[in-house]
Amino acid sequence: MSKQNQTLREFIDSLPEEERIVLTLYYIKRYSIAEISAKIGAPERAISTVLTSGRMRMSSALNFPQGS
Hints:
Arc Repressor Mutant, subunit A; mainly alpha; globular; single chain
């Protein structure tokens, strides 16, 4: 596991449960937004909102460039 992947995993593990689940499914398990929506029973729009929030947090906390 690369240092960046390890850092990302540690960051995701520190998040509140809902965000942790969504970001893990999206970034680690590579599920699509539609698949996450079906799996956890939340609207796709809610999943997108959590992902956007998570990306902003990651970018800020880990100094990753936007879009990573």
